[in-house]
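Support request, please re-run this one:
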Amino acid sequence: MIRIEHLTLGYGGRILLDGVSAAIPAGTLTALLGRNGTGKSTLLRALAGLGERRGGRVLLDGRDLDRIAPPQLAATVAFVTTERVRIANLRCRDVVALGRAPYTNWIGRMQAEDAAVVARALAAVGMEGYAGRTMDTMSDGECQRVMIARALAQQTPIILLDEPTSFLDLPNRYELCTLLRRLARDEGKCILFSTHELDIALALCDSVALIDPPYLHHLPTEEMVRSGHIERLFGSAVVGFDPVSGTIKLEKQFDKP
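Re-run finished. Output below.
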């Protein structure tokens, strides 16, 4: 679970979020939305312990972020950034094995149990057949699945992802977010990801966190649809939404960078 209490974030003389509070439970997939430059990446980095806060506190799995030692933090939250791994001769299983760093011995030697975790993580994202392939020979979508497998290998209750659908075509975007939803529900993880894909967010996510500087609105997806925040901020009216099938209809497409 992620809980933020009276959190304030900003850079320079600008305040992005001012005293906001929210709670994101385990076993759910939450989309983080907002216009460009409103602080989506800044918020994710703050939740991962990688960015400064101007006020408030963050609790991860019930523990104050400021009191979690680095080894414990690595076993609590996994962060998948927008960076693309394209290192020649680096095999998929080696990338995923990096997620075992919090658990290996002092020289970083993998044990049989660690190897089994890596194999299960690759299988969970449908990449077990790519274990021996190098990252420089794979597509963006395949590499993104491997990076998610690395996060799974960390065995953390919380996973944060910054724009995981960037540079993917529409079918792969939907497939990736469907995978994230399955992992949240089947593994009981708390997964929060930033995105510009409004239609996918409303179709697949349990809740939506919407940055509206200096506020943060966090509501179940159906309530967010009814709230009018989306129409007000993006000019996209949701004129039809079926929560069972996940089918939505927008008056116009979501504003993209």
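The chain has two domains: 1-76+170-257, 83-155. The two ends are 30 Å apart (CA to CA).
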